[in-house]
Specification:
Elements: E1 2-4, E2 7-13, E3 23-28, H1 37-46, H2 49-57, E4 66-70, E5 78-83, H3 94-111, E6 116-119, H4 131-148, E7 154-159, H5 162-171
Parallel strand pairs: 2-7, 3-5, 3-6, 6-7
Antiparallel strand pairs: 1-2, 4-5
Helix pairs in contact: 3-4, 4-5
Bound molecules: adenosine-5'-diphosphate.
């Protein structure tokens, strides 16, 4: 746990669909088409209204950006669908795109008056981003954002696997 001003940044192991926060972030794809991993879990738990809203409002979302919908049956108010990069070899602006996915998510959360937000480890599943590097990028992006905007109360990284939790705990003891 790290506290900066009123913002607590913490990491826990768990299923992000169970989080009681104002908004949860999804690791979506450019087509906003739904998928496996955390995306599948969020759409299953949230119900069909998420996909209906995505289809009605957005024609996809570029890598490094994010869009927002309601949260259906989830206890959150919003789901932010962020598109992280597919990992190739690090020479394709992966870090820049991953940082931007976190930053856009935080901007949307701020614009919608959210005080508490939960992130998964975007891009570290099917998209193959090395977990340790992805954690650096994620934490750096969050710290940079809260320097300019101190309004969040809690930013929580919800890690599905023990390995990811251990990595985050090194930086957020
Ligand atoms: P990506 O395509 O961005 O890599 P994935 O969903 O495949 O997205 O994986 C992103 C991360 O989300 C992985 O670390 C995966 O273990 C994790 N994950 C999968 N299901 C959940 C869940 N229910 N809650 C939180 N994290 C999850």
């Amino acid at each position: 746990m790290l506290q900066i001003g009123q913002t607590i940044i913490e990491c826990v192991q768990g299923d992000i669909t169970k989080e009681n926060v104002d908004c949860i972030v999804n690791a979506a794809n450019e087509h906003l088409a739904g998928g496996g991993g955390v995306d599948g879990a969020i759409h299953r738990a949230g119900g069909p209204s998420l996909m209906a809203e995505l289809k009605a409002k957005y024609k996809g979302c570029p890598t490094g950006s994010a869009v927002i919908t309601g949260a259906g049956n989830l206890s959150a108010k919003y789901v932010i669908h962020a598109v992280g990069p597919r990992w190739k070899d690090g020479l394709y602006h992966e870090a820049e795109h991953l940082a931007s996915a976190y930053q856009k998510s935080l901007e949307l959360a701020k614009e919608h008056g959210c005080k508490t937000i939960a992130f998964p480890a975007i891009s570290t599943g099917v998209y193959g981003y090395p977990k340790e590097e992805a954690a650096h990028v994620a934490i750096r992006a969050v710290l940079a954002f809260i320097k300019t905007y101190p309004g969040f109360e809690k930013i929580r990284f919800v890690l599905f696997d023990a390995e990811s939790l251990t990595i985050y705990q090194k930086y957020l003891p």
